[in-house]
Amino acid sequence: MLQAINIDLDDKTEKSIGSNGKRRYWDIWFAVPETNKFFVVTIYKGKIERVEDLTVEGTTPYPQKEFVLLEDIKYDSPDLLEKALKLGVLYPGKNWAKGYNFMLRKDPETGITLMLIIGWNKELDQMVAVYFNAKNGERLVTSN
């Protein structure tokens, strides 16, 4: 897997979207290591809803080092949202990117599997992301 990110779709009707650290819709990016094969799988309520082959001939192969490994995920979004909220810098979105959002991906420079907890600042005028190491649950300070 290259990346997992929740998507809004019909979550817009809920009042406390993501407040429990979970979302109903996810796009999971998969690829075949050292090839240009690329697929997006959409998950809805834990079931596969759509699979799309987005392979483009002539694109650069995906190196093995960019893949998220299952053994590098020990902390999930509910646990890490709780930690992020204790920092007092993250608020749920109201209009666009409602509630709290989540992304799982590998940092290509450090090789660390990251869980991003995404919300807004107190004024709701700027998105804010809190980065965690998905393997040990530690907060990472980034310049991103």
Beta-strand portion reads: 25-35%
> Alpha-carbon distance between the termini?
22 Å
Principal-axis shape equals globular
Nearest-angstrom radius of gyration? 16 Å
Widest sheet: strand ordering: 4-3-2-1-5-6-7-8
Outline the biggest β-sheet.
8 strands, antiparallel
Provide the low-confidence segments as ranges.
Answer: none
User: Could you say which structural class the secondary elements and strand pairing correspond to?
Assistant: mainly beta
Number of strands: 8
Which percent range fits the helix content?
under 10%
Please tell me the overall pLDDT. 90
Number of helices: 1
Q: How many separate structural domains?
A: 1
Helix-strand pattern: EEEEHEEEE
Quickly describe the structure.
The protein is mainly beta and 144 residues long.
Overview of this protein structure:
This protein is mainly β. It has one domain (3-140). The chain is 7% helix and 33% strand. It is built from 1 helix and 8 strands. It has an 8-stranded antiparallel β-sheet, with helices on one face. Strand 2 (25-31) and strand 3 (38-44) form a beta hairpin. The mean pLDDT is 90.
Name the descriptors.
144 residues; 8 strands; single chain; mainly beta; eight-stranded antiparallel β-sheet; 1 helix
Topology (elements, then pairings):
Layout: E1 3-6, E2 25-31, E3 38-44, E4 47-53, H1 77-86, E5 101-106, E6 113-120, E7 127-133, E8 139-140
